[in-house]
Amino acid sequence: MKLNLFVTCITILLVILITSTTCEINSISTYDVKQAIENGSDYAHVLELSLLFFEAQRSGKLPKDNRIPWRGDSALNDRGSNGEDLTGGYYDAGDFVKFGFTMAFTTTLLAWGAVSWPEAYKAAGQLDEIRKTVKWATDYFIKCHVSENVFYGQVGDFSIDHAFWGRPEELNTSRPAYKIDAEHPGSDLAGETAAALAASSIIFRNVDPEYSVKCLQHAKDLYKFADTHRGFYHTVIPGGQEFYESTGYGDELAWAAAWLFNATAEPKYLYDAIHHYQDFHLNERPTRFFYNNKVAGVQVLLAQLTGQSEYQNAVRAFCDFSVRQQTRTPKGLLYIDKSGTLSHAANVALICLAAADSEIGDSREYRQFAKEQIDYMLGAAGRSYVVGYGKDPPKQPHHSAASCSNRPVPCGWPELDRNAPNPQILYGALVSGPDVADQFQDRRDDYIYTDVTLDYNAGFTSALAGLLQLQLKSVA
């Protein structure tokens, strides 16, 4: 009863606030991108490059405005068990599996950045591009959601896929599709996809209302599926446990409900988000924010949506720990894990930028931390870790298609071991990154350093947008 009363009391105030701030693009004609660049890092250019990376990861029939000359149509026969069209979406990494769990997390983070910092995208000339990037994923999710309680969460098998090294346009392997349903549920997968579609619906609200409504309806149905039929997706989809395991689904349920409230202002979703937060003990301080733990993101959203001290204190605890106590490399990079070193730091930067915008904790300290982390990735520590950008960028990202010369030159396993720059520049890709001693091996065959994935670039892209918006306002 107390929870219901709380939700009812704040909903009227929040409806006006949410609908007026989540989608409107403010005029920034007084901002000068060139002047901002002169005062710091070229966030606008890197933002553009990062979106090019996602374009290079596209699967399916490519549009006429494809900007990646060495990419073409691929995996046009991706089908479900009943012949459903599952073409489209994004390849996960340097291989050609479409992992729905991480693709959805990536989409949620990209949409979050576009919702939070649209002025940055507009100033960088990337507003249309971020919408295209998000829509390439949401179109695919809608295809995969073939009925109310059936969702295809993976296309391609990792072991089969890794018998092939070459161009996706020349794939000659079988590509099985895996689904969750009411008898074989996956609350984490369905919940994350619901969050992605709900967040994405906000950025399309004013430019394509019909599509926004479509995304939102699928989000609602997937959330209901996730909440009603509970279970772990990796018990159903074989590749999940080995490569993208989920160790809990309470964070995805709360994450999805919070995004649905953000998109709809319907009190039941806020009630659910708070209930999941309490029921799954999401008040504990996490040490990271990534595809397998969205707790820090849930805490930020609830702090923004409710203004309640409980959530603000949780966010402050996470950022204070990350900024002041978490392990650093000698050159200052936040170090959480060797796999996706830079991505982990970028994701924390995103959380603390969002916290600073909400005046949680020491905003100045959080923003300075985020700037230091992203600037490290762009070259402040001596080299760039973004392909095609800055000083001494990675030249051998672990990426099958980029290792191939232009057709008709053959491409195969010898290209993996060839110690030479990739013939194709995978612009904008953020590599896994250095070790705890700031050491980095730019070798294609050493994926622990040079791997690239969708989710590595997700928080990084949105953090770039957050820093660019701050940079633009500082010279307004």
Automatic annotation (TrEMBL):
Q: Which GO terms describe its molecular function?
A: cellulase activity
EC class, as a word, reads hydrolase
A GO BP term here is:
cellulose catabolic process
Under catalytic activity, the entry for this protein gives:
Endohydrolysis of (1->4)-beta-D-glucosidic linkages in cellulose, lichenin and cereal beta-D-glucans
Signal peptide start-end: 1-23
Q: Which organism is it from?
A: Ooceraea biroi
Q: What is this protein called?
A: cellulase
Q: Which InterPro entries match?
A: 6-hairpin_glycosidase_sf, 6hp_glycosidase-like_sf, Glyco_hydro_9
Domain Glycoside hydrolase family stretches: 43-464
Its keywords, alphabetically, are: Carbohydrate metabolism, Cellulose degradation, Glycosidase, Hydrolase, Polysaccharide degradation, Signal
* UniProt EC number: 3.2.1.4
What Gene3D superfamilies does this protein's entry cite?
A: 1.50.10.10
Report the sequence similarity comment from the record.
Belongs to the glycosyl hydrolase 9 (cellulase E) family.
Superkingdom, natural source:
Eukaryota
